[in-house]
Amino acid sequence: QSFETIIEDKYVYVDKTDLVYDLAQEHVCFLSRPRRFGKSLLVSTLEAYFLGKKELFAGLFMEKLEQNWDVYPVFHIDFSRGNFSKIDALTNMLNTYLSDWEKIYGKDDVRVELGDRFQYVLEQAHKKTGKKAVVLIDEYDKPLLDPLGEEAEKSNRDTLRGFYGTFKSADPYLRFVLLTGVTKFSQITVFSGFNQPRDISMDSHYDAICGITEEELYQYFDESIIELAKEHMCSVDEMKAMLKMQYDGYHFSHKLLDIYNPFSIMNVFALRILDDYWYRSGTPFYLAKLLEGHQINLEKLISCPYEAKYFIDYRADSEDPLAMLYQSGYLTIKSYDMRYREYELGYPNDEVKGAFLALIANGYFKTDENQQKNWIKQLDRMLRRGDLNAVRDAFTSFLASIPYEANKDERAKDFESHFQYTLYIIFRLLSCYTVLIEKQNSMGRADIIIECDKDIYIFEFKLDGSAEEALKQIEEKQYALPYLNDPRSLHKIGVNISSETRTVAEWKER
């Protein structure tokens, strides 16, 4: 995360300094990007630039773009280091920053409010150096996300409103201000004290300011890709395709420039294993909390277009998770309709798809994540070898293992809805196959169709009905019609679920 360390220790640096230079010509800006996406490195690079550390930019775009290399007083606030669940935590951190700056630029004992003290420091910095101040705030939203929905959220919001209000009155002393974060909050008046910053989050010019483009990946990491291909005994083109499917696909504007997740890519090259690094780095607590109680069917959520206002701003009083899912990186832009200025959203890549499904499964089933993973692997093997008796037993035992509290939750009062959502999550977790949920033909919708290498499974489920009734529906609605000429083995399975036992009561197959 340190630009200076990367350069001095001769690590590979993907040169973003042309975009950094352009950004530095702005005045007050805001940038939203998912976690682990390089926001802190961007802030570190800007800090080195405004401190005039010319030697660090030798050989980079910046060396040709900047001629003066003026040195500015830089005020860097890093909220990523704190936990702000307790009411006093934010005030204590800001007091620490201000005390350190007051030792350098002086203190006015009359000014006791945080915002007033900050304004005085900015004024004095300008007077002492002759240069306007630069303010860099990393993870500005963490003091709001940590206590989301708790008492400290309002307290932190009020504190930040007063602190950020400084920027309006101190504007004559400010050269540049940047706030970064995951989420763009709206209608909570954090920024009401000063002019709204220019939001560059969906500005196509800054698409690649964080993350790695495909061109950059091949330019800077060609040797790493070749080594990775050798390690996995595949061709370089095959490895590129795997990296793209697993880690590419983030889009931050209507131009749909593909951006790779930098955190996952760096871990792949370091450990030489394609794994879910971004997800394993930690699920945001605020997101898990927001999703609690929601039955999120991604197919329905992403099946309609949205104007940008629906997913770029998060409303604190909203129960709609769409904006938070987009800003947290679980959804991204998939297409843009210029005529209507509408976007369609979807999963960026396979890593994120698996991460999201695991996230909602953990919260909904209230079961151990490792237990779920092991069960899905077993189910995968059973389907691969066509062992439907084992599949039946696995379904029966897994449904029975879901804790009673999960079924008794407020969201599950309508057990039919709970039952349908349970099946949705289970089959969506089988990401290694083509899984069609509510596949429609001219006569109806099949509940579940799984297309494997050698087999096709058509499932129809009934609640407090009969397995025979489910099989009859498969025949009458002709769900198998598209597969009549398919060489793979076709299996029709009727399943009855009991609302009393909440597991498989009857299972028949043809």
Describe this protein's structure:
The chain is α/β, with parallel strands linked by helices and 510 residues long. It contains 24 helices and 16 strands. A 5-stranded parallel sheet has the order 2-3-4-1-6, with helices on both faces. A hairpin with a 4-residue loop joins β10 (332-337) and β11. The mean pLDDT is 88.
Largest sheet: 5 strands, parallel
**H/I helix tally:** 24
The assigned structural class equals: alpha/beta
Mean pLDDT: 88
Tell me the overall shape.
elongated
Map the helices and strands.
Blueprint: H1 3-8, H2 17-24, E1 28-32, H3 39-50, H4 61-65, E2 74-78, H5 87-105, H6 114-129, E3 133-138, H7 142-145, H8 151-164, H9 166-169, E4 174-181, E5 185-186, E6 198-199, E7 212-213, H10 214-220, H11 222-231, H12 236-247, E8 259-260, H13 262-271, H14 277-280, H15 285-291, H16 298-301, H17 309-312, E9 314-315, H18 322-327, E10 332-337, E11 342-346, H19 350-365, H20 369-385, H21 388-401, H22 404-408, H23 415-428, E12 434-441, E13 444-451, E14 455-463, H24 467-476, E15 489-498, E16 503-509
Parallel strand pairs: 1-4, 1-6, 2-3, 3-4, 5-9, 14-15
Antiparallel strand pairs: 7-8, 10-11, 12-13, 13-14, 15-16
